[in-house]
Amino acid sequence: MPRFFMAGSNIAGGVAVIKGQDADHVRVLRMKLGEKLVISDGEGTDYNCVLSRMGENIIEARVLDSLPSPAEPSVRCIVLTGFSKGDRSDYTVQKSVESGASEIVFFPCERCVSRPDGKSLDKKIMRWQRIAEEAAKQAGRGIIPVVSAASDLASAINLAIKTDLPLFLYETGDRIPLKQAIENTAPLTSAAIMTGPEGGFEPFETELAKHAGMLICSMGPRILRCETAPVTALTSIMYATGNL
Amino acid sequence: MPRFFMAGSNIAGGVAVIKGQDADHVRVLRMKLGEKLVISDGEGTDYNCVLSRMGENIIEARVLDSLPSPAEPSVRCIVLTGFSKGDRSDYTVQKSVESGASEIVFFPCERCVSRPDGKSLDKKIMRWQRIAEEAAKQAGRGIIPVVSAASDLASAINLAIKTDLPLFLYETGDRIPLKQAIENTAPLTSAAIMTGPEGGFEPFETELAKHAGMLICSMGPRILRCETAPVTALTSIMYATGNL
Fold it and tell me: CATH number of the domain that B201 lies in?
């Protein structure tokens, strides 16, 4: 069934008003009066609707019922990752959204080669938000995960430690296996996945995260690329918590 | 420690002979006599070596000891996937190797838009094999997973059903959750992950797989892209079997 994301404010009094690109999309799909569609308010609620008016300038759909979006995982996962170069960050955004992330936060840290700021950062965030929106639509998500940037590692850590499972993925030294960290956490309703840029984290950054209460974790003996690591951790959480 | 892939035949009598690109690599790294390196025979054995001769034309390393490559997972996973367009297949190869696949097999099926054959297929296989080799080196794998093509779906199914866990991932209808399929299988020493092209599988293809003994599985309510689905399943198996 066709699926549309619409801001909650367009759904009122049991009627959804479909405008702009969404209206164009309804026409491209050659949908007719009486046909069913799902409208997501982008905040986790799905509305089952039926096309009730097809005007030149306005399309309306009558709301049949609403339900929490079944595609939304029971665990809220924030992906926090160091800025990386080229299309790696695009990949992280697309695959994280597809795999169930609720939010994606980039941050600068010691070994980041790419350090966008000002207008350059604004442009990147806009680009990543567009990728997130497309991925959310394609995957049938009930929300469009927000992409943002933290000013530094400390701010990112501060977001992470507010969750039930603040994971800091590191490739060497004394670490807890990811599986053990996940299975030892109950209840698990929120998690943070923090990964570094291409060159990884500096030891002092790892110490900082540890002192702040993050769990320094390993993901096995294979070395994962910076764009793959957060998706691997996210998929593991989804699998372990019955969201896959 | 620097890591090199070398065919087993170059390691004989406790000495590894380093030639060609590998020798160039040793020089680029400015390695010196007495320095240690790891040589993988590409078949799952790692040799701890020390540089014992640095000639103009020949470099030799003395073998200190050998061990099964610690990066190789305990479960042998074959990824079988329909031909897809553009760089999606490149992605599947790279990420599957990084995530622990032992072998990758592409096959043509009903909804494949891309159907390379003859010279075009040979070229693609060579390209994917190069991607697999690079990914194996980067990830520190102990083998270079082989990339090949099966002639049709039936041949691919025939490979899959020889494993302990022949998974056929499908997006609709009566399916077993992936987690249940994995957890109900013991011992689990080999698995096959079969996924479709962009347009998915035809119902008759799914029936064929089911009759042949494959497990028709779901991976939750989110719709995964064709290049993401095999990696998600692979990561789940690695997580569940303690290989992550």
Answer: 3.40.1280.10
